[in-house]
Each structure stands twice: as structure tokens, then as C-alpha cells.
Request: fold
Amino acid sequence: MQSAVWDPVETISREDMERLQVERLRERLGLVKSHVPFYRERLVGVEPGSIQSLADLTRLPFTSKQDLRDNYPFGLFAVAMADVVRIHASSGTTGKPTVVGYTANDIEMWAGLTARALTLAGVTKDDIVQNAYGYGLFTGGLGLHYGAEKLGAAVVPTSSGNTARQVMLLQDFGTTVLCATPSYALVLAEGAAEAGFDLKSGPLRVGIFGAEPWSEQMRAEIESRLGIAALDIYGLSEVIGPAVAMECVHKTGMHIAEDHFIPEIIDPDTLEPLPLGESGELVFTCVTKEALPLIRYRTHDLARLLPGGCPCGRTTVRMEKVLGRNDDMLIIRGINVFPSQIEAVLLDLGQVEPHYQLVVERGADHTDGLEVRVESASDPSQHGELERSLKSNLRDSLGIGCTVRILGPGEIARSEGKAVRVIDNRRI
Ligand code: DLL
Reply:
């Protein structure tokens, strides 16, 4: 099935895309060198005109979250504050937030990108889009809001939370598209069940889910509970917010808006670029933004860029589902494991609910222990057997030894935004 394409640039040839990227990169380098003292210093000796191909990206320095912190709040902005029309921020685990800014042109461009993302999901002006991403400093709410309006759809700006009311509006308004974190989509499914509203028989048909890692097994759970197609959307505030990449209805990985953000995959240890198809850390260079055009921004997200075409006809490079952030990786007695991998093993067994939490403790003998807590609706008399099966599956698939604790339905705290999957008591 060929769906409509928002922007013809999504189907241009590789050569044309690279030509466009290089041209835009040169221009952006000139801009940051002349307007941002930080980049003027970092880019000494790099003449924008000397950039001939994407291979020249490796001549450029990386930018990190620490650089944004060191220049808090507005030090990396490339325009005067008079030209900034919006500020967002993402809260870190500690200290000051990461602050990002947008000019009027940036907001217009971003609205075009979220409209592009919604179009990738088959959303049109005839849809009713309930946007349950948080509105505020978080980029999810306002980011998708502007794109849905630009597309001409009817947006219901519920923001996150107030689940009972969300469910009522879903039902009464005949919402056809839901935007939320995947974990909050499941909370809404529970709320609908409590209210006696069968989501599957309603008009809801597609979900635009992202802002946190979620496995293919979680996709299957959500699709069966809500009776919809669940599609993945990726982004980060530093690069722009949601719609850096978005899956199309074929679910072949997320199409990257590479005409605006040039992706690279690097080895996080050596910082060397990796060949197409290899897994590593995603890095983006913003080549069209005005207020905050970051060069080679290290996301710490681990993924692969996928070669080959897509049945939708778009030629933009795709990224596979994000495994997790390398700073969220758990090291359990020497074994590296991401929460999303544990999620996949739990849901594969089919006897537990998609609500879980991982608790890491440091024992008296200084070794680390992991407890996997997961809900099950099964009879408590079967919990012992279930615990043993999960423990053995986790050991077989991931090589980790852990304890498993089965909890009853609703015992794990629900989240309205990004789910808190890991409680690391070692840091307290
Ligand atoms: O989460 C932007 C966003 C809003 C994306 C709504 C999608 C939908 P931040 O709060 O800055 O921005 O967090 C960015 O969230 O580096 C990833 O670690 C993670 N993340 C975002 N999307 C996905 C996804 C928004 N689809 C950080 N899969 C990123 C996995 C994701 N992780």
C-alpha cells in the first residue's frame, strides 16, 4: 500500500539527498561558526566550503549533553533571544534541565515534520487526534499538536493524566488516533476496561507511541489490547523533539527526517563511525535549525540504521527500534542488559501483564542483584511456577541470574509519561 507522502523530499534519490545534506551542512557550519562562540572555538581550521561529502562529518567535533549543561541555559543558541519564540526543556535525573530554543522558522519546520510523521502513520485531515503527550516543557505535547493542526486533523489536547476523563473523551469524541507514551497507552486501556468501554469496537485505529523504549512484544500487547496499529515515533529535545524519525504503516523501522538531521552510528567507545547496518550510538547533525543547530550531537541511544528500500516508496534511511540509552544499560554481575530486552523475555511467555519494574540492589558482599517485578493476573497458587519459568527464560535468553517477584494486577505504579522501569538502589 502506498500512502500519501507529506514532502516530495522523502522519495528523492540517495545522490540528491546527499547533495542536499552536504549543501545544508556547509551553510549551517558557517552559521554556527559566526554566531556561537563555542563552535567558533571547536571548529577552528574547518572551512565550511571544504566539506565535500558526508565522509567529511568525521572532521567535525561531537557535541554532548555536558556541552549544553556547561553553556546553560542559552549559551549554544545561534540567534539573539529576540528571535527565539519558544523554549522547551527536558528534566535530567539530577541538576539543571537541558534547555532548547526555537525561532518562528524552527517552529514552522517542526510542525511540518510532525505533520510528516502523522502522514507516515496514515493520519489525514479527517482524523480526530487525541494528544496525550504532556504539554509543557516536554516537547511531546506541543510538538505533535502543531503538526496535527497543520495536517488539518482535529486535535484534542488532553495532555497526559486524568485517565478517566481521557477515556470518556476517547469514547464520546470518537477519537481515531492516539498519541501517548506506550506505557500510558496501556494505562488508558486499563481505564477503558474499568469504564466498560471496549476500545476494540470503537473507531480508534492508530497509535503514535514513543518517548521511551518499547519492545516488539510490547507492540503486540498494545495492538491486541487497543485493537489498533501501534507505530513508533522517535525524537529528542536537543535535536528538535518528536518526529526526528517515524515508522510508516509497514513497520519496517523509523524513517529519519534526514533532510533536516543527518544521522550517523558510532562506536560509543572509539567514537569511530560504524558501517551501515551495524548497531551503535546514534549521532545527529541539525542542518536546518536556526536557534539550536547542534553539530554531531551524541544521543546515547543505541540503534541501527537499516539499509534497503521500504514498500511505502520513501527513500529516507530508517532506524530500528531503539534498544535503550547506553546510560540505562544494567550491568548485572558482568552481563550487559537493557530493560527492553527483559521486557521482551517477560512478554514472550504470555502469562504476565505488560507492567514491570527492575530493582537493582548492592548486597553486603558488594555484588549487585537484580529483582524483576512483574504483574500477573493468574491465580496466586501458580505464581511459584511462573517465577521459576521466568527466571529460567531470563537466564537462557539473556544470561542474567536474577530473582523474579510476581505481583497482582495494579501493584506496580503507573506512569502518565515516560515509565520508570529501573529502581537503582545502588545510587542512593
Ligand atoms: O522524548 C521527544 C518525544 C516526544 C519523542 C514524544 C517521541 C514522542 P526527550 O524528553 O528529550 O524527548 O527524550 C529523548 O527519549 O534520547 C530516547 O532515549 C528516548 N526516546 C524518544 N523516543 C523514543 C523511542 C522526547 N521511540 C529521549 N524509542 C531519547 C525509544 C525513545 N526511546
